[in-house]
Write a structure and sequence with these properties.
globular, mainly alpha, six-stranded mixed sheet
Length: about 425
């Protein structure tokens, strides 16, 4: 167990240097200056400032355009600095009419849906959920191409997307879809390789939204694969990339959907032969069963899903000691970059009286609970299978209680998570109701 408390409260320049020293695997040739210059800052105040700029009507009109009025809130939502319910309430409060917020709330619904699927399937989201909806003519490379990683493919749009991902850790959703589609369907890269690459860099890196979105593009968790074409790119970027691309008129994404589908996939579709996908929602998560009655002194465990003093466990037990654990297994699996870690530590710096340790979560939490005289551990609900496994192990010797997030929607009637459309038809009415 290594104490990383000295990383909290540093200015950005010192923070980046200290993270590179404490977690050298994150320092993979990145320019420290570029990380220091990132405009996105972690923490509750930055999230609230961004949330104040929401324009639900403009979002509904322009969200598909790369320069549209998107919220940019995904890094803070992913880490529980603001909740889905809180953003929904803000959007409804800013809308002149409730229907103006419908599109924004439905996009929040996708993130809620991905989390429910993750809770139901656990680590299985890292493997194809269904056979491909269309059989690719070629593909299956388990590695990212070197020309892509170096942003020298010759396609102006692709190289611009890659540079921005590496430099800023954020892309518009359309840019993510275009890049993923081109990699999987044109370059023949396995979707897992691309999804893992995204997860290293994205400030909002979340296995649920990230890996399941890649599967949606690949056609392994959707009715058909998503195909990127130049017409779509030009429409939603005002042609900014194509106008200066040497490959215009002769690139890999020329043609309409049917022309590209015929070029990229075998004639016979697998989709028609697939059984309708059914995914049963997971039951409420209670590590080790319900905690014993009479527990009085919790140790609050903040996780990657709850990096805020306003997250459920921390807010419920405002005077309890708090611990965040940097898990070496997570570092090895997701390989977060300096910019990702800098954002995370800036969020943590907002949490009063927080301890941060590097080590195995079960060992660290058990030791800190003994030191503080705590009789149980409390954490916010999370779909993360790594956190859930650690909590189940911990619960064998120390009670663990799970605190639910503020309600975003009523899922009591949901019996199947096989498709978002089915899910949303069951919960959309309640999702559009503000918190009482």
């Amino acid at each position: 167990m290594i104490d990383l408390g000295h990383l909290l409260g540093c200015d950005r320049e010192r923070l980046v240097a200290e993270i590179a020293r404490a977690i050298p695997a994150a320092d993979r040739g990145q320019s420290h200056a570029s990380v220091i210059a990132l405009p996105i800052r972690g923490g509750r105040n930055a999230a609230l400032a961004r949330m104040a700029t929401i324009d639900p009507a403009a979002y509904a009109r322009t969200r598909n355009h790369v320069a549209g009025a998107v919220t940019g809130l995904s890094p803070w939502i992913r880490h529980g600095v603001v909740s889905l319910a809180e953003v929904r309430d803000r959007a409804l409060g800013l809308a002149r009419r409730p229907d103006e917020a419908t599109k924004l709330v439905s996009e929040l619904g996708w993130r809620d849906y991905w989390r429910q699927v993750h809770a139901a399937l656990g680590d299985r989201i890292r493997e194809s959920i269904e056979p491909p909806a269309a059989r690719p003519r070629s593909g299956g490379s388990p590695r990212m191409p070197e020309d892509v990683l170096a942003a020298v493919t010759g396609m102006e749009c692709i190289d611009a997307f890659v540079r921005r991902l590496h430099e800023t850790g954020w892309l518009h959703n359309h840019e993510r879809m275009w890049l993923a589609s081109w990699l999987v369907h044109v370059r023949g890269v396995r979707w897992q390789a691309g999804a893992d690459w995204f997860l290293e860099h994205l400030l909002d890196g979340d296995p649920a939204s990230n890996h399941l979105s890649w599967q949606w593009v690949a056609g392994t968790f959707s009715a058909k694969p998503y195909i990127f074409n130049r017409e779509n790119l030009e429409a939603f970027t005002d042609g900014v990339h194509c106008s200066r691309c040497p490959l215009i008129g002769n690139c890999d994404v020329e043609g309409d959907y049917d022309e590209l589908a015929a070029r990229l996939f075998e004639p016979e579709a697998v989709a028609s032969a697939r059984e309708p996908l059914r995914i049963r929602p997971a039951p409420p998560w209670r590590p080790g069963g319900n905690p014993a009655a009479g527990l009085r002194r919790p140790l609050v465990w903040l996780t990657l899903d709850s990096l805020s003093a306003e997250s459920p466990a921390a807010a419920t037990h405002a005077d309890a000691p708090r611990v965040f654990v940097v898990d070496p297994a997570w570092l090895a699996e997701e390989r977060p970059t300096l910019k990702r870690l800098a954002f995370i530590f800036e969020c943590l710096a907002d949490v009063p009286a927080l301890e941060v340790h590097l080590g195995d979560p079960v060992e660290v939490l058990a030791a800190r609970a003994r030191t503080h005289g705590c009789d149980h551990v409390a954490l916010a609900e999370t779909p993360c299978p790594r956190i859930r496994r650690a909590a189940e192990t911990l619960a064998m010797s120390l009670p663990v209680s799970v605190i639910e997030w503020p309600r975003f929607c009523d899922r009591s009637r949901v019996k199947d998570l096989g498709r978002f459309s089915r899910y949303w038809s069951q919960v959309s009415g309640s999702a559009l109701e503000p918190t009482a």
